[in-house]
Amino acid sequence: MSATQPRRILIAEDEPKLAALLRDYLTASGFDASCVSDGLRVVPEFRRSNPDLVILDLMLPHRDGLEICRELRTFSTVPIVMVTARVEEIDRLLGLELGADDYVCKPFSPREVVARIKAILRRATRGPAAAGGLTIDADRHRAEFEGVALELTPVEFRLLSTLAAAPGRVFSRARLMENLYPDHRIVTDRTVDSHVKNLRRKLEKVSQAHEAIQSVYGLGYKLEL
Description:
Blueprint: E1 8-12, H1 16-28, E2 32-36, H2 39-49, E3 53-57, H3 65-72, E4 80-84, H4 89-97, E5 102-105, H5 110-124, E6 129-131, E7 134-137, E8 142-145, E9 148-150, H6 154-164, H7 173-180, H8 189-206, E10 213-216, E11 220-223
Parallel strand pairs: 1-2, 1-3, 3-4, 4-5
Antiparallel strand pairs: 6-7, 7-8, 8-9, 10-11
Helix pairs in contact: 1-5, 6-8
């Protein structure tokens, strides 16, 4: 039996049966899971219990999930998995840009949700990795370049982490897309190019000595530090 303390999961879901189902699956997988059903109680419960990850329903009574996500991101980088029956692309994009780490649409398999949570927490427990003036701390969802903190969206953070995992290696757009969008949405090459452009701009604000993210014609992108 492991002596480590179970990872705590806060489930913010107003459907009692679904919340109980998720809690049971998570408990069976070794997590310490608790539930809250009212949007107004999520942030106070988060501060009280200090969870390792939040499962956050988009449509909660009295306060919606996007607003809650926005507030949580003002003081915490704890991973957030948003859950909803609304599949409109605008909601999907808005949720992730506000700082959600993953997005699950109802109906879903509880086993799939548990698998995604395990994958997110595995990524989040890696320590800081540094190379060529760049430091990436997955645990705190924080990146620094030349000692300056980078203000990155979740997608930009995943993009930089992917490129930094193998400096000098050329990543195709298809490979980058696999890592950028946990919900496996279909996006165009231009979407990836747009994120690369934004990330480049943020790196160049810190240092214009050279172009850190380089385009390789006909192949993709690589990070050179």
